[in-house]
Write a structure and sequence with these properties.
The complex is a heterodimer of chains A (about 325) and B (about 300).
Chain A (H helix, E strand, L loop, with lengths): L1 H33 L3 H5 L7 H11 L5 H13 L13 H36 L4 H15 L2 H15 L17 H38 L3 H8 L4 H13 L1 H13 L5 H6 L5 H10 L3 H29 L7
Chain B lengths: L2 H19 L1 H18 L1 H4 L7 H6 L23 H37 L1 H16 L2 H12 L3 H12 L1 H15 L2 H8 L4 H37 L10 H10 L8 H29 L8
Helix pairs in contact in B: 2-5, 2-13, 5-6, 5-8, 5-9, 5-11, 5-12, 5-13, 6-9, 7-8, 8-11, 9-11, 11-12, 11-13, 12-13
The chains are: A mainly alpha (about 325), B mainly alpha (about 300).
Chain lengths: ~325, ~300
Amino acid sequence: MKRGRGRLVLRKVLGSLLTLVFVLVFNFVLFRIVETDPVASLFRGRNIPAERLEELRAEFGLDQPLGTQFVFYMRETFQLNLGISYQSRQPVWDEIRSRIPATLALVGSSAVFSALIGTIGGVIAAWRRNTWKDHSITSGTMLFYSMPDFWLGMILLVAFAVVLGWFPVGGIVDLGSTAGGLELLLDQLHHMFLPALTLTLAYLGEYTLVTRSSLLDVMGEDYLTVARAKGLRDVMVRNRHAVPNALLPVVTLLAINFGFILSGAIAVEAVFSWPGLGKATADAIRGPDLPMLQGLFLLFSSAVIFFNLIADLAYSWLDPRVETA
Amino acid sequence: MSLAMQRRRATAARVGKQFRDSRSGMIGLGILAVFVVMALAAPLLADANQLNPVFARNAGNPQWATPGEFGPLGTDHIRRSVWAQFVWGSRVSLFVGLAATVLTILIGSVIGIVSGFFGRRTDAVLMRLTEWFLVIPFLPLAIVLASVLGRSVWNIIFVIGITSWPSTARLVRAQVLTVKQRLFVDRAKSLGAGGPHIVARHILPNVSGLILANATLAVPVSILTETTLAFLGLGDPASASWGKTLEEAFANGAMIRNAWWYFVPAGLGILAVVLAFTLVGRTLEEIANPRLGGDR
């Protein structure tokens, strides 16, 4: 048994590494197709002598054959040397790194809230299926599921920030604010409320539907009849016996969604001018700032690959039946 | 009439009856009918000249007019009629959504059928590719491809098609694998039927219901993706979809002005169409796969 598990882990890890190599090759090929001369793009509109451009091309390794360039690219990538942003002229990795915390805070908290509320909604809907509660929960989630998330954000922004004035219209802190400590934190939370509400509502549906259908699957099981037969109250049957067995797909969904956290809010961040990775992506598109897009794509893909691996391993650990697969 | 024809007619009649019995399916179909008629009858409903800022200025349209001042949906920052944008935008959004779905289903079905039918090494290679596309975050990939390819309707369709086929491929492959085990495939083989014949006459008819349901459920994804890409500035500048309307409204300060008439209709249009396709798709799915049951 032990050996089987070790081999399973090894196979999954190797699979993930292979996928990552695919991403790197794809990234290299795609951006080499469009961008034949990054040096010229980087210094577009600046008066730089031709000799200096040649020097820079040699520095970037652009005078080398494609194979050598690929090796060069791989080596640089693993040292997190992702090139220079056309827009800010700063190293891409520095630009990206400084924006990770804002995105983690926003999308992380939305993911937790949506999973929590969505799961509870799904449990209520399944337990009371075909009642008015079920119908209103299911149609409500369908509604939020069917609208573009950024449009929901626009509506909430106009309603609560522009018309009612309860929340700021964008950004992460009040302009010109010099507050620190607790006051700064409160200001940031105030700014985060609307985008977080938007994402929570947008992500809810998935959890509700998955929980509902998973719970419906176990509701016919004999052990629930047994639990009822020994006189347990309805709530206890639900919380102690039905829900724990129905939660497995929800846990997997959560783990997989964590991978999408970093890339999850591109348009919503743009609507609320939230200075995270999503806003960075939206800004890079306008350029187009290709080195920035390339770096962001690499980061987003790596996050998904990593969390997929975690989800796979967690699944085989939580559900022993998977091990034989 | 041949026996096969009779059977096919009977199946079609049964599916039609089951569909008509589903309330949510019929509601979806009704909403869809409204929007399809609107897209087809666009020239009758709104003057296309109203999409042109020069024409709008010469016509004396007011700027940022509310629906009360300029019916039925007001005007935008360059005096164009929002109603005209809504009506003509439905064409682009529906066309891109449907065309991208056709491409998605085509790629997904071919890969799924080839993979499931031939098995062995072909299957292993194709499934590895499918898995890779499944793992790569879909929207960033679409963004990167669209940025690289340039902004046109056909590029958007291509980008959506090339990024969203994997789940269809997996589904079709699984179905092909079960159909392949059935007795009638062995029977056809022993009668000397070749691969293409078996795929066309035995495998395809048995997976087509599933493909249709899957296609209907793929349209919402295509439409939402087009909307997001257009909102991020990757849409075709020449043909305005609902997503493009939202982008322009956002970029030109409609929100700060509380010019709700500019961005609410386009969003509601997307919401209605996406909801309609989802309702129809789920009904078809229940019919194609009765094990799902009416409870979900």
